[in-house]
Amino acid sequence: MKAIRRLTVRPVLPDPLRPLSDLARNLRWSWHPETRDLFQSVDPECWTASGRDPVRLLGTVPPARLAELAEDRRFLRRLTAVADDLDHYMSGDRWYQAQPGRLPAAVAYFSPEFGITAALPQYSGGLGILAGDHLKAASDLGVPLVGVGLLYRHGYFRQSLSRDGWQQEHYPVLDPHELPLAPLKERDGTPAHVALALPGGRELRARIWLAQVGRVPLLLLDSDVEENDPGERGVTDRLYGGGSEHRLLQEMLLGIGGVRAVRTYCRLTGHPTPEVFHTNEGHAGFLGLERIAELCDEGLEFGAALEAVRAGTVFTTHTPVPAGIDRFDRELVARHFGPDSELPRIDVERVLRLGMETYPGGEPNLFNMAVMGLRLAQRANGVSLLHGGVSRGMFAGLWPGFDAEEVPITSVTNGVHAPTWVAPEVFRLGARHIGVQRAEDALAVGGSDRWDSVADIPDEDIWQLRRTLRAQLVEEVRERLRASWRQRGAGTAELGWIDDALDPDVLTIGFARRVPSYKRLTLMLRDRERLTELLLHPERPIQIVVAGKAHPADDGGKRLVQELVRFADDPRVRHRIVFLPDYGMAMAQKLYPGCDIWLNNPLRPLEACGTSGMKAALNGCLNLSVLDGWWDEWYQPDFGWAIPTADGVGTDPDRRDAIEANALYDLLEQRITPRFYERGASGLPDRWLEMVRRTLSLLGPKVLAGRMVREYVERLYAPAAEAHRAMDPDSARGLAEWKARVRAAWPGVSVDHVETSAATAAAELGATLGLRVRVKLGELAPEDVEVQAVSGRVDSEDRITDAAKVPLKPVGGPDLEGRWVYEGPLALDRTGPFGYTVRVLPAHRLLASGVETGLVAVPSGDLVEAAGLLMR
């Protein structure tokens, strides 16, 4: 019989065990081994059956066992120690509190997904895992972050396989009352809500749920409430599901509703009001509109409110391709804003202008969420050095007249939260050599002095650790294989081979990620015979563990999964290559430590960062990857291998795949497998172990989320907070009026004449030239602009590279025609072909950079010819 209603019955814990509830509700347990060990000791069988979820565990432990534990003095001492440790963690000063200067009182961090733990499945892939790691690292460092997202009642899909290897999706219903969440409540005890106005007088309401991620509160908005009509109840049904309007409503709820949720949380709890708002990808971009509306309600005009909002906003882009950005039809967006919908006090045309692709190559009828994110943020970044460059090129149209390298998008390379991803066995080995506290600090904060101690760990200990982790992975794989084959309809008689699947002494390669075409899941299958020879080599075999989900609407991705599964089903090789369905955090935490090699072969430069290889590296796994994302930035032959790329302009995709697949096979055959199986005088693979050691000591401090969050604080959050404080209402009005005046007057600005003291087209290194420039400023004054000399080495097309910019100073007043003379020295500090030019930029103390406005005046072509701006 089927129940007509579902309830969650919570256990009543005996008084001595009440701290267990607090420990279960704070997700710090997901990265704190002592807390997990305590819960496991409550009831080991229930712990395993609950999926290692403390909330579910406490709901299934028999009352008799709870009564027994309430009398167990040894258990109660452990409980007190763990609870005291959490209290100290929550209240004590950490890295952030020890920093000089006035840092932000709080930062609001918005993301469409968060991967905190498998017990709270609100993520699909790397973006969500990165967001979860950002929150955890912020908690460890004491950064006063408030996370904001959506609560998806089905999460992302669960994946299984049909008999013939086709991906199948399942969407289990998630009951918030069975998750590590608590409803945010008003002071009268009623659930806290936010509401959005919809066309036609309708309303979208959402309840606010709170997940406590260590010190960081995470607010999740849930539209599945009785006050909503069925259509509105389904807005937060699943991650990245539905059509355009469904996605638009999700993103309006995330951005606009999210700001309202933050305001509600701060009002109810006394949490400091955020000074900085961080938009993690364009999905949350509407948060800027809500904040503009708030300021307009306080009396600011739209332009001034826009400047005030921009000052305190940080935007992070994660996609290296335009196809990865959400874009909506202009009319759809217009229908949801304006007098009878949301934000009625803002002219809908102003809303639309923020997201329209009004630049060469753009589609003027589409509303681009990333474009809006950039226009609403004074500071923006990509997620690796290479991706920052790709992003500057992709969005250069928003700053016409500037070279791509000057586009104001910097980069902060992603990191991973080591306490989440480092296997307990790895941590214990490190702690034995440097102590528990120093090991914890090394993982959370970093510092090369702590990581250098890896050099003192004996080879025997490292090799034994690696084999132990490999053996654990083999057992995990066999268990998951049995479950998968049973789901596919196999009987017990067909599963005997699984007992011999994989070998704990064979070189193990991992490949696990989402399955869009650019990640090339099946590149390894390019030459199947050659791969088979590698798998079955009599002396130096390899084995491969593969996992990944294709988007439910991506049949091309599903075909790639099926192709891989069918190859792995072949009885000749199925003990050496396996595909594990339903890739998620729980699987990943076993997979990364157990692999010897982490394989990554995307089409360069389409991998923005790719953090899975970082997690593997922290466990002593070596990377084998195309030079893309973070690997392009930090690769050294000391600790991994680079797959050569064939990315020349004339190389067609099929030939490119063939060349790079052959390079992959060559590396495995000629360099990687010999090194793994080669034994030194000690009977151990000395050269391999040296690479493991260097991976841990050299890469370890770099790939930490703690390093990443520190960079965000120092390079983006602190300057944004300072700009936010400087942008009081009068300053915001002044800047908006100044920008409007400068834009109106800019057509009258020009470079009229350039002359130099150089007598010839050659000069000696270290010499200084005198530069004299005459400019027309029209209705502007010298204090409105900066006249710059831009110089540097030039390429074969006379483009200046690695440019140096030096401001020139005005000399005297304007002449009768309103022209101003600027002068300054030009240092010849580089040998070889050297060039210079001059330009005029708007200048104001509240601009983050001279590039911000997108306005520039440069010499005309005729003037360049006359001035002789090139020296060789």
TrEMBL record:
Domain of life of the native organism: Bacteria
Annotated keywords: Allosteric enzyme, Carbohydrate metabolism, Glycosyltransferase, Pyridoxal phosphate, Transferase
SUPFAM superfamilies from the UniProt entry: UDP-Glycosyltransferase/glycogen phosphorylase
Cofactor annotation: pyridoxal 5'-phosphate
Keyword Magnesium applies: no
EC number of this enzyme: 2.4.1.1
Catalytic activity entry: [(1->4)-alpha-D-glucosyl](n) + phosphate = [(1->4)-alpha-D-glucosyl](n-1) + alpha-D-glucose 1-phosphate
Pfam family membership, one: DUF3417
Function: Phosphorylase is an important allosteric enzyme in carbohydrate metabolism. Enzymes from different sources differ in their regulatory mechanisms and in their natural substrates. However, all known phosphorylases share catalytic and structural properties.
Protein name: glycogen phosphorylase
